[in-house]
Amino acid sequence: MKKDFNIILAGVGGQGIITLTRILAETALIEKKDVKTSELHGLSQRGGSVETHIRFGREIYSPLIRQGGADLIISLETQEALKALHYSSKKETMFLVNDFIKPIFGTKNTLPSKQIQKELEKFSKEVVFVPASKIVKEKLGKEVLAGVFLLGYAAFKKLIPLKPNSFLKAIEKVVPKRYFQLNKKTFTLANPTNYE
Amino acid sequence: MEKVLSKKVGEKVILLGNEAIVRGALESGVQFVSTYPGTPASEIGNTFYKISNLKSQISNLNLYFEFSTNEKVALEAGAGASFSGQRTLVAMKHFGLNVASDFLITLVYSGVRTGMVIVVADDPGCSSSAQSEQDSRAYSYLAHIPTLTPATPQECKDFTKFAFELSEKFKIPVMVRETTRVALQSGIVKLGKIVQGRRKGKFVKDPHQFVTMPPRVLEMKKELLEKIRKIKNEVSEKSPTNYESKRITNKKIGIVTSGVSYLYTMEALKEFNLNLPVLKLGFFYPLPEKKIKKFIKSIKKVLIVEELEPYIEREVKRFAKDANPKLQIFGKNLLPEIGELRPEIVLRAIAKITNRKLKIENSIKIKNLKLKIPRRTPQLCPGCPYWLVFSGIKTALKKMKLSEKDVVFGGEIGCYMLAGLSPHNIQDYLFCMGSDMGIAHGIKKATFNKQKLIAFVGDSSFFHAGIPALINAVHNKSNPLVIIMDNQTTAMTGHQPHPGIEKTGMGEASPKIKIEDIVRACGVKNLKVIDQGNQKEFVKTVKEFLQNKTVSVIIARRPCIFVK
Lengths: 196, 564
Hints:
The structure holds 2 protein chains of 2 kinds.
Chain A: E1 5-12, H1 17-30, E2 34-38, E3 49-57, E4 72-75, H2 78-83, E5 94-98, H3 113-122, E6 126-130, H4 132-140, H5 146-156, H6 164-174, H7 177-189, H8 192-195
Parallel strand pairs in A: 1-4, 4-5, 5-6
Antiparallel strand pairs in A: 1-3, 2-3
Helix pairs in contact in A: 1-6, 4-5, 5-7
Chain B: H1 2-5, E1 12-16, H2 17-26, E2 32-35, H3 42-52, H4 55-61, E3 64-67, H5 71-83, E4 88-93, H6 94-110, E5 116-122, H7 138-143, E6 147-148, H8 153-170, E7 174-179, H9 180-183, E8 185-190, H10 207-210, H11 216-236, E9 243-244, E10 253-257, H12 260-272, E11 278-280, E12 283-285, H13 289-297, E13 301-305, H14 311-323, E14 328-330, H15 343-353, H16 363-367, H17 385-399, E15 407-411, E16 429-430, H18 435-446, E17 452-458, H19 459-475, E18 481-486, H20 515-521, E19 526-530, H21 535-545, E20 552-557
Parallel strand pairs in B: 2-3, 2-4, 4-5, 5-7, 6-7, 10-11, 10-13, 13-14, 15-16, 15-17, 17-18, 18-20, 19-20
Antiparallel strand pairs in B: 1-8, 6-12, 9-11
Helix pairs in contact in B: 2-3, 2-8, 5-6, 12-15, 13-14, 17-21, 18-19
């Protein structure tokens, strides 16, 4: 691996971002990498914007990714991706965005996905929109699995330099037993050979 | 949880800073733990709560855990346990230390018998704190309490263990001060052995040590300052918690830093491929003066990287006067005193003192982006009982032909401070826990009871610090309408129990303390307990109580949707 790998997870409270953060960290540990994450708790996370940082590599100091320092930004909600632009750079950053809008309380119009995509493209290397919420709702009946689906997508497409098998081991470690099979199914469903 | 309790010595696991503190305490044979919940310290109590509810574990560990009514009581209880010979950990957020400070300052005078560690979590940037951005290191000076500042989860564990040893050796409580990005940082921690606490508690009388009265109290102060001098010379100066990251000679520029700022510093040096000497301070108080003097002697420029107040910077300036008067000292002239530090802020400061170019692409363009998404403010959960209180009040005012402008709304700390946000917008002041009714009384007095006032206070807040203020309003005769938002839990910090619930931190049944009994005992004559689901009665009562000449209390009792 050339250097540290930096991932931002963005979304809205209740989308399971803390669990995804744990899964990513455990996956990195399974592959014997140094790893740090940063998250926030408390009232401001209740239905508000959520952003966590995951960094892994040979030796990681800072739990926070610096401005313009993300390799991958996974946004579980389309509008929230814009808020993560702070961490994006033209040279390095890839956006993986759930094509899913959660309306913001007190605003009438949501921003159109196409317009958001255009803005993201201006400041990043590549932008991929995946209708993860729609897919998991149709195939598995639960929208909250969108995050695990996106992780699977990123893993199988090699957007994250960690092996899908390590992810599965980490999911087994992090997710409560009774939900493991469902999460495993979601993760493997994201393998493009199954889904494209 | 399983990771925190893992018996595999030497295993590497990922823990949050707060979980690592719990592990450190378990590896130190802690037997008594008390806390009042508050983010970013909550996971310490929550983890002990989970452990204490595992019957299989608790007998093995000989551990007692409680959620105390407030931080001062938590600290007092912890001190009692330490006076009786058990290792003790007390955890709180920064504001909690303000509440506990009256007792803290005296406790450091008397000292303790067995290891006592006080964990305090500051919140630079106020990501989960409403009331201020205080730097609790000020208490290190005020109370003369030895203070350690870890940077990583591994250090959280190691420093906690070290703090117990230090505390026990010098019979003095020791503070471990975290910040949000330490407490809620996860990283790899190498586990040690969990030690079963085996000490039987016994309070051995020693009034000489535990009764503070003049003239003895001044002797105690002398003993305390002597302890601090010893800790400075015998421990801080030699401690591996204060270390120079790399021994590099003939460098002109050096960096002094501590806590999470150290991590941003190292990351910046890595990015610039710079090899500068860095002095990382694990001890904040007492600082290793000789070590710092030695460090600054051989350099021309020093940058002090610390969050919030420039405490270390001031000390370095003082030390430089005789160690290196020509030293150029940088710190808060390059770094902000407001908000948390971030990697790019430290990068910029280091670029500046080393004359390096730093280009962060697109940053201005991104800042000026036309496509703005509005702030996604936190919301009361769908189905939250507080919706019904706020809407009921609005209905009542309408029926009374009163505008919201005609009524003063007092807020306090809890989920109900969302009253201040849209769509509610009924919060005219917000300060600390317990302050709401106190302020309400003053407003009522100053306005000769002419302005109508509704003060919200949560159930846990009421127990925490509300009761004296309610008594004051009754005794000194004012007439606010107090609404106790009784959702039967400490909701905002993660649903911890409180005295109004029949369950303790150990998961045992306990007598429920009824808020209405307390309110009545405080002399309140106008009292109603209502489930606000019954909007008709709630609205009617608000209308009626707003006309009362004496203090009125409505206990709006309906459980949080997460309470089973």
